[in-house]
Amino acid sequence: MKLRLALFSALLAAICIVNAEDKPKSDPKAMPKPEVVKSEDDWKKLLTLEQFEVTRGRGTERPFGKIYEEFEKQGEGTYYCVCCGAELFTSKEKFHSGCGWPSFYDSSKAKGVLEKVDISHGMRRVETVCKRCDAHLGHVFEGEGFKTPTDRRFCINGVALKFVAKGGEAPKLLEVASSEVQKKKDEVAKEGGVEPKK
Hints:
By secondary structure, the chain is of the alpha+beta class. The protein has helices at about 1-20, 40-45, 50-55, 65-75, 180-190, and strands at about 75-80, 85-90, 105, 115-120, 125-130, 135-140, 150-155, 160-165. Residues about 5-30 have low confidence and may be disordered.
């Protein structure tokens, strides 16, 4: 009986440890809020149906599609968020993984990619999103044995990216239009003697 009780206690302790490790390390309340916030209808006006389904609906494009073929042929340049224009990756971090989706071993120095725990579909993964507008980009995987400086693979949906070849003009950043920003603009306008627009 004592042996059973000891084994049961050990099993219970092990389950508690596993469950504790399964909980997201990042507190959702501590995650930075996106600067660019729009309604679904506003995003639908700016994006194609596929871009909307992937970036706003957290979907996944099919592997080895036309976008992937184009990605494989692209030379030097920078990859921006298709939703808001923030810099995400450069061709320096790009590598061929053979997985059927654009792959990078790190984000660009602009630090526009945010990583957060994703426990959807019965799996525990790390989702990558645009830090500026919370657009779903894909997922990042570690320890797969790729001979890259980080041994990480950012597996990114090609439709979430806008490529600009080296020397080209970066896309214009989408204006920040959250209610907090608008409130601050109205306050500043009022202090300047201008009546805010309704």
